[in-house]
Design a protein that fits this description.
The protein is mainly alpha-helical. It has one domain (3-78). It has helices spanning 3-18, 25-39, 48-55, 61-64, 74-78; strands spanning 44-45, 66-67. It has a two-stranded antiparallel sheet with strand order 1-2.
């Protein structure tokens, strides 16, 4: 994956994250399903600090996790349609 494509994908993920309420319901459903898959994936990268902050409800866990394969933030990765899961778990 080239850097431009990855950057473009995450930009679209942030754009959709900010405008989440205006997204079509079908896209929201797809993003939620992707998020569930990612949060149960063996490659989910969670630092000990994020787990502690999430446990104290200071941050939402999925907002701070990243993919251990591609390095993308999970929330933005699931909210874009440019790059699929690097492990082929969703498109």
């Amino acid at each position: 994956m080239d850097l431009f494509k990855k950057t473009h994908a995450i930009y679209n993920g942030w754009k959709n994250y900010i405008g989440f309420d205006d997204l079509p319901e079908q896209f929201k459903k797809k993003a939620r399903l992707r998020g569930e898959i990612c949060c149960s994936c063996e490659f989910l990268d969670t630092s000990w600090l994020v787990r502690v902050l999430a446990w104290f409800n200071i941050v939402k866990p999925a907002e701070k996790y990243k993919c251990g394969k591609c390095g993308c933030p999970i929330t933005q990765k699931v909210l874009q349609d440019i790059e699929p899961c690097p492990e082929g778990k969703w498109k």
